[in-house]
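testing teh design pipeline on a random one, pls ignore if ur not involved
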């Protein structure tokens, strides 16, 4: 594609060089530059990629999108005010506006995004649609699965995935939309048909200045949709968003349990095997069973019902698919074993999520609930004492351990957690494997061990090294040791 077509409709400060040249690829990572590349220079949080202009030329780059005044004879430099913001537009142009050719459904909120996108993907597939998926665990382009690095990819990669989905005949794409993506322009130029809001609890406050800033970032999604917005009206953040967007041209629908809503649940019954309820929509009611226990499952599936209702999907397909779902990896996932030891692994890494999963565990556990958890390093520190307080108040016993300490000292992270813990029903074991072994070694008949924080992740980041670590694998090792000594 010609450079002049790629930068179409871009607010340009200046152009130095020829825009009639052919561009074979666009990249923001200098390691991926090849012959004919347009290289986008971004001033990131730690690295300014303007420094890689010369090395990119050596690799074959022929044009550059820059924020600084640069001129090198024989190469084209397009200067804009904000290259990250401009990157979304040129990526969309280069990929020929792929999101407009599908039903793109965006899900944002603190918790529940992965479950909702997974359920929707399963239902749409059952409805004989080819569906793309973008989320925390993986990306699926209609043909291949790619392990995710971010919940929502950078705009270049996002538009490339959309293009591959279109090429692979996907009719829809369900995607998780993070607050980072909305704040950093990753989803600009994406043609969202439907937006879903789950809930808002403190998270990512190392990035957002406060909870209000976090909420406002989430709210941006609902100004990008064309068919409908679907809001959890039981959530305080959801009610604020609803009030702010209810007068937009895009229709707003609500879902909930405790407040009047367009889509709501009644006759709720929760068991260790899953949740039973009656879903009430504007035109029908239907009995539902989902083999994933917890009140959060009801909320997640109400959002799913609302979306499918707006897409005119038959209720029998929705009900049948939910009844047979295998759930989501690392989301209140039972560790199967022949010793009938009750062990659950969950991704809960925020105060609200940890509170929900411990409460859910206690609803079905006749004995004690023993919780193993930690907090991630180089992330929001304010939630650490809150999670400590929740864990000791709701658990019968808890073990504080390492999560992904990254470049922080595990002891510093744990000390932050302990600031919120006043009781004596806990102990500290820094090594996560040792902590899991200790918890499972303590378990007695009818007890349950909840291992929280990592869920589907099969790695642990210590310093700058990413080491294999899977909570489920370690739990099975611990069971073997307990019963085969």
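output:
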């Amino acid at each position: 594609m010609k450079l002049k077509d790629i930068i179409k409709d871009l607010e340009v400060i200046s152009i130095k060089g020829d825009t009639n040249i052919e561009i074979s690829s666009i990249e923001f990572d200098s390691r991926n530059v090849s012959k004919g590349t347009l290289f986008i220079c971004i001033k990131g949080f730690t690295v300014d990629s303007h420094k890689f202009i010369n090395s990119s030329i050596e690799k074959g780059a022929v044009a550059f999108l820059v924020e600084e005044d640069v001129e090198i004879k024989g190469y084209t430099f397009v200067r804009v005010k904000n290259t990250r913001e401009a990157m979304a537009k040129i990526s969309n142009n280069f990929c020929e506006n792929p999101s407009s050719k599908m039903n793109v459904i965006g899900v944002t909120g603190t918790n529940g995004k992965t479950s909702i996108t997974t359920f929707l993907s399963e239902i749409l597939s059952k409805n004989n649609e080819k569906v793309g998926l973008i989320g925390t665990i993986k990306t699926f382009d209609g043909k291949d699965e790619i392990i995710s690095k971010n919940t929502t990819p950078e705009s270049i990669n996002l538009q490339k995935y959309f293009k591959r989905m279109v090429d692979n005949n996907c009719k829809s794409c369900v995607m998780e939309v993070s607050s980072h993506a909305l704040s950093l322009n990753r989803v600009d130029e994406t043609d969202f048909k439907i937006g879903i809001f789950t809930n808002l609890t403190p998270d990512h406050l190392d990035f957002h200045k406060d909870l209000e800033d976090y909420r406002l970032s989430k709210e941006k999604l609902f100004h990008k949709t064309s068919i409908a917005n679907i809001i959890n009206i039981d959530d305080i953040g959801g009610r604020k968003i609803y009030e702010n967007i209810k007068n937009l041209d895009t229709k707003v629908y609500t879902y909930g349990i405790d407040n009047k809503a367009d889509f709501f649940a009644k006759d709720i019954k929760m068991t260790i095997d899953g949740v039973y309820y009656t879903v009430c929509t504007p035109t029908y009611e239907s009995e539902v069973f989902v083999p994933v226990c917890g009140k959060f499952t009801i909320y997640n599936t109400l959002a799913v019902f609302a979306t499918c209702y707006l897409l005119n999907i038959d209720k029998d397909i929705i009900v049948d698919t939910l009844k047979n779902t295998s759930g989501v990896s690392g989301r209140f996932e039972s560790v199967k074993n022949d010793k009938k030891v009750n062990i659950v692994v969950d991704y809960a890494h925020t105060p609200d999520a940890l509170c929900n999963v411990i409460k859910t565990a206690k609803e079905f556990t006749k004995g004690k609930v023993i919780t193993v958890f930690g907090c991630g390093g180089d992330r929001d520190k304010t939630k650490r004492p809150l999670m400590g307080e929740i864990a000791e108040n709701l658990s019968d016993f808890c073990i504080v351990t390492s999560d992904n300490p990254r470049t922080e000292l595990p002891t510093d992270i744990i000390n932050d957690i302990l600031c919120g813990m006043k009781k004596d029903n806990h102990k500290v074991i820094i090594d996560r494997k040792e902590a899991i072994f200790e918890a499972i070694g303590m378990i007695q008949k009818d007890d349950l061990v909840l291992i929280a924080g990592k869920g589907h992740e099969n790695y642990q980041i210590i310093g700058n090294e990413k080491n294999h670590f899977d909570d489920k694998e370690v739990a099975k090792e611990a069971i073997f040791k307990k019963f085969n000594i």
